[in-house]
């Protein structure tokens, strides 16, 4: 009997994956454990191993295709078995080609306008947010869109002539968590997009979860100009672009800057290096690790800063889940270290290193990359010589600390100006949840923690 | 086709007489002088002077209207009358002579040119009615509103004089569209009438009264009412089909050969041809007709030649003489009869007529013979009156008419309806909406108790649901079917209402072409159920007359396609009279119309839409036995005209929807309520007629193959129609297909679709789709699948117009492009 290989679902937020390479072609025989194809999400790479033995009867996609998760990819069976019935429709590939934002196609069955039991899911009626400006919308669909908080312009129409009809809105609504009243109202106004599942109960999407919807603008543009080349953004790039843009559009950000005396940190770093060299430590504790440690301590005294701002509410954390901005070949990633406040400096250092390495390798658990996963983020550009900058908050977090390079600055020591190493701290906070005074006190606290860090290891 | 009438080949092939002999038709044979009449005691001098007065009233009345139309004033008092005025100056002797022998039990029907006839009949009624009775009539009419104005300044204390004022005022006020007019101003010049004086509707359709009056005569006969019926028609009207059909209906042999007991004998109908020589501008004698004299027509209809006679309509006494003799014949049940009254109109067809078709000499020659002047001279010669007396009569008449004219144009005393302010007023008058068990007091005549009727006994043994107790289908012989439902309602009413009659083609022994009436022949005497000639205009026209007089009637049109044959009766007469009479008349007519299939282009059309288009008709189309019985009961309980459509596809169907089957007892289903035959949530099918069953098949397929649930609603009634259930359904489903067997273009399906679009716009997921038949001739039965909406068409419409169904391949072309292309080609 023919076996259908589907695109696995990697993490809650993954909607589609790109096949990096098919390792088998039609006609090849396959053993259990053979790698069939490699694929990647926005942030990670995987390999699909065969669970069955047989011959590859069909491959429905080509290298580089973006395939919705749970979609049929290939068929393995005995030569002569039929496989055509497993072929995904063109609609599916069209859907996959659109920019993706909303999540979770697996929940669509039964919600799709009552056409249950006929493989509507497999028909791939697009649930993804797509650009659909100007498409006809039935009066009923428009009305329902308001009720459900769906922006019809982000729904692909399956009606005659591409009309957006009731089932399309229902499907889009099912692809997202229930919306709070505020979220509905804001969705109805348009211009924002639901993240799929939000920060409320049972994934309810709150007003603060909404992101500015930024459609692609390149449709219809010529591919080449005389002085430029038009390069489509990678999915990863689009994701980063959208989340950065959303952050600035949807919050009230400003940055305070303060220098911290770095002598103590530098001393600790020297000590750690020596311990590593002498084999007393098996981990290289970096300046950044010490700074993060200090930040964690400061955060514990400032619950408003260690928070998510949800627009109409604050999510105050009883622990510190620390996000770390990591520069990778694919672009910026911000993996989180959960319960970082429970860690000693060595454990923290190890954890930070692991998530950074995993991110760079692409093997990071996608769930750790969610902005929801961290309660506060640290971004360190000190290694590159940057002194001050204005980091962008990873919404819905309330703040981000940018750590700059250490420069010698004059300081009055015992009645005499001396050059002392100073670390540049740039704290961007969301003025919706934190006022300037509190932000100043927090930043000062971070500086004090850095200056007075006293650690045994 | 009664078996009692043996068609003997020996007699038919070898008749005793070898030529058809026509009786002689007298022409202008009256020759008496006034003195001779007086001597014979036919008149008193007072009678003769009243005849003069009545003619003078008519002349002045028409003169007044003519002056108002042509000069905008009468006696210096200005008024603008924008409505019609078809005047009859010159014809006074004919009108007064016609009315002289008639009582208020005798009814007259008229034409567009009947002011003279209603005035003559009214004046004669005032003359002969006992004062108390006359007073009562006037006081009760419109709650005394008309009398209050007409008698406002009258101090004479003479009831008859008051009566003349009442009559003249009521007529002028009606012509000028005042609420104090005889029909609240809704009838106007061409329709005004006053039933308490036995004046029944005039008719703006030439010859319209030709069949309606025959129906009134049928009512008088069947319900044993006193009096005869006179149809005043013009010489031009004798060309009209409905007149000839009415005459055919009135000539039927069966009144004398088959009707029994006191019902045996001719109809009391007298056709009075007001032969004024012109059919608008066409000259009937010598140009547009070939009869030379209209009296000749009688010879074509029965061996008695309708006792036809041509009389001098310029001598009132000659006319009176003829009407007296014909009335006596009719009372002896020897009717029908026809009088051809020679007359001449001075005025044109209407005031805009320049009389370009006749010479001045001709008009002057007739004016020299003027009937009023001539009659006046005879009275003076005979010593009945002096010229001074006659002049005094003229002066009195002018006074009365001028006074009534001034009252009728007084905006305060004689107001018009304010239909702009009271926007629903006329709407509320379109239907009477009464509920009446029986319109007669008599005991209904039947041949045996209902339970002894063979059909009733047969139905008693039937299962009243399509499945038996064990849920197995009942055989067609044992299953209570659609025709049983219609039959039960009708037989019940025949046993309740003595006035109820039913007729049409093949209604009696055959039991109706589709056997609905099987068993009724046994139950009913001839005069309650009979075969009519193949004359649809007469079938409906007579039913209108029958109902106008107060009887309930079920005429039958065997095929919907034949509605065209009675187009005027269905579209112009039946729907109009309740409102046009100011709600004085009711119209309890249930027209059974069978919608065919299988028989091609002229026997398979659904023309329900034509009926829904005409205001004033209720339109019903049940398709299940339960609905048929309940809706027929409601139709028969009401007093409004109902076009009751039945599908020939469905006469044999059993009840599949109503739990417990069709109840044995009486029940009513209110007209206007659509019925949800199957509940669903994804799409609504609203069907008219037999399409319901194809919609249910489509719903089954939709459910099985696509998991979609259709809500199926049977419209049941098209007019009135309650949208509430449909709105609720569309709010739920968001999609609706409206389907029926009528050709789609211009059909009621589109009307429903347009209204639903407006009423449910915000709830619609797609525009309502209309599935009607193609805009073709109906092809042969074997090809009908391409013509009438099929189950697959429903899925096609959903797929193409609402929501594409995965993997679905359409069977018909329902695309927008095709829609445009077909419209472009007019198909």
Structure in a nutshell:
The complex is a heterodimer of chains A (457) and B (827). Chain A is α+β, with helices and mostly antiparallel strands and 457 residues long.
SSE diagram, text form:
The complex is a heterodimer of chains A (457) and B (827).
Chain A: E1 3-6, E2 16-22, E3 29-30, E4 35-40, E5 45-49, E6 54-59, E7 66-68, E8 72-77, H1 90-97, H2 120-123, H3 139-148, H4 166-174, H5 181-189, E9 192-193, E10 211-212, H6 235-250, E11 253-261, H7 263-277, H8 287-301, E12 307-309, E13 314-316, E14 322-324, E15 326-328, E16 331-333, E17 336-337, H9 345-361, E18 376-380, E19 399-413, E20 416-430, H10 436-451
Parallel strand pairs in A: 14-18, 18-19
Antiparallel strand pairs in A: 1-8, 2-4, 2-7, 3-6, 4-5, 6-8, 9-10, 11-20, 12-13, 14-17, 15-16, 19-20
Chain B: H1 9-13, H2 34-40, H3 45-71, E1 73-74, E2 77-78, H4 92-100, E3 107-109, H5 115-128, H6 131-140, H7 145-150, H8 159-175, H9 209-222, E4 229-234, H10 241-250, H11 254-257, E5 269-275, E6 278-279, E7 282-283, H12 284-288, E8 309-312, H13 316-331, E9 337-342, H14 360-368, H15 371-381, H16 387-408, H17 425-428, H18 454-460, H19 482-494, E10 501-504, H20 520-523, E11 529-531, H21 536-548, E12 553-557, H22 567-573, H23 577-580, E13 590-595, H24 608-613, E14 618-620, H25 625-637, E15 642-647, E16 675-678, E17 683-688, H26 691-706, E18 710-714, E19 717-719, H27 724-733, E20 736-743, H28 748-760, E21 769-773, H29 791-802, H30 816-825
Parallel strand pairs in B: 3-4, 4-5, 5-9, 8-9, 10-11, 10-12, 12-13, 13-15, 14-15, 17-18, 17-20, 20-21
Antiparallel strand pairs in B: 1-2, 6-7, 14-19, 16-18
Helix pairs in contact in B: 3-4, 3-5, 3-15, 3-16, 4-5, 4-13, 5-8, 6-8, 8-16, 9-10, 9-21, 10-21, 19-25, 21-22, 26-29
